[in-house]
Amino acid sequence: MTPPAPHPPRPGAPAPAGSGASAGSAEAAATVVAGAPAGSAGGPAPDGSGEGDGPKAPAVAGIVPADSVVLRSGTLSWLFPRRSALAAALLLPLLALLITLAVMASSTGMSPRDTVSGLLGTGDPGTVMIVRDFRLPRVFVGLMVGAALGVAGCLTQTLAGNRLATPDLIGVNEGATAAVVASAAGSSTGMIGDWWLGPLGAVAAAVLVVLCAGGAGGAGYRVLVVGIGVSTVIGAVGDLVMSRENDNTAGGVFLWAVGSLNGRDWHVGTPLLIVLLFLLPLALAAGHRLQLLRFDDDTAACLGVDLRRLRAAALALAVALAGAAVGVGGPIAFVALAAPIVAGRLSGPTRVPVLGSALTGAALITAADALGRVIAPVELPVGVVTSVLGGPFLLWVLFRTDSTTGKA
After folding, report:
1. CA gap 121, 55 in Å, rounded
2. How far apart are CA 128 and CA 174, in angstroms?
3. Are 224 and 164 in contact (CB under 8 A)?
4. Can you tell me whether residue 68 is helix, strand or coil?
């Protein structure tokens, strides 16, 4: 007697033993459709009618980075960067603590109680003036300078594919410095010129570096080497100009040229704030697209990226941010190098940490400026502090493998 033919299994039912469907393939299929709406991945409708079979969910729906989570609302979905958000949530209270310490730090021996009274306006007029008119603007200008340098370094490192390719080392900072220094030539007081000369000099230096390097493409080491050469030449020209000036001019320019926030107030802080409010959202948008540059150029182009336009826009943003920061605070060393690396360690290798670099750069400048006011009998410029701390950090970077590229 012929045995009856077996009925085909219902959609979504588990495969019978011996049918050849492995547990691994079932688990992989479950991963692909994980989180898909009911009835959209070939399974039965919620009412059990079996008529909810729709188009298959794309395979990429279940490929979610380990540092992210998918948020859905109806037909819309968003890949939320969980690790980056956690890093930002940890950096914000740390930054608030550093701001408090920087406001309290005093090179004149002012007590914390006097600082609080000056902040509230209940102290004597001299204390109120020192805290409100000098120290508070200086702290917030330092925050903005650090954020601008951190984002500029993040963009240039990502563009060149090299952690050493920062505005410190590719000529942008030297170009901005030379423009501001040239404005002080011939002055009898040594007063530094307008801050907006910094972005102009940075743009000129960046154009020269890109032209000499043959573009801002994937040749990161070429950009780095050409930038170092251009920085050396521009720095030598600036030193030659200052060597022919009087002592007052040379002394005033030297103090600014090592990186200093001394005397910075809302006169320069307000324009810098306007610049950041305009450029930082653009940098965040560019950082989202720059993630694709971690693939090769062909893959990024297949994903719909206009590589030439993206690189030009990101480089222009980095140059403008670095030039504005240098024009206000001077060429503060190593912040643009350290901030993106630290932020990348916190945010993970799958992200371009634009926001994290801004917060980390602001924290580094705030901490270094406060440390320079209390670590020595005389106040140290913030650029001196970052240079002393940045040397060992640079050695650590050189001898440590990059987790995103696998390169040294």
Report:
1. 67
2. 37
3. yes
4. coil
**Closest among 373, 361, 10 to 157, alpha carbons compared:** 361
pTM over 0.85: no
**Backbone φ and ψ of 73, nearest 5°:** -145, 100
Mean pLDDT (the chain) is 78
Neighbours of 8 (CB within 10 A): 7
Alpha carbon distances (Å) from 22 to 17, 28, 44, 56, 166? 9, 10, 22, 21, 51
The answer for residues whose C-beta is within 8 angstroms of residue 364's C-beta and 6 or more apart is 146, 150, 335, 338, 339, 386
The pLDDT tens digits for 13-61 are 444 444 444 334 333 333 333 344 444 444 444 444 444 444 444 444 4
Instruction: Annotate 309-357 with DSSP letters as a single string.
Output: HHHHHHHHHHHHHHHHHHHHH----SHHHHHHHHHHHHH-TTS--HHHH
The model's pLDDT over 198-245, given as tens digits with 9 standing for 90+, comes to: 888 888 988 888 888 776 655 557 777 888 888 889 888 888 877 777
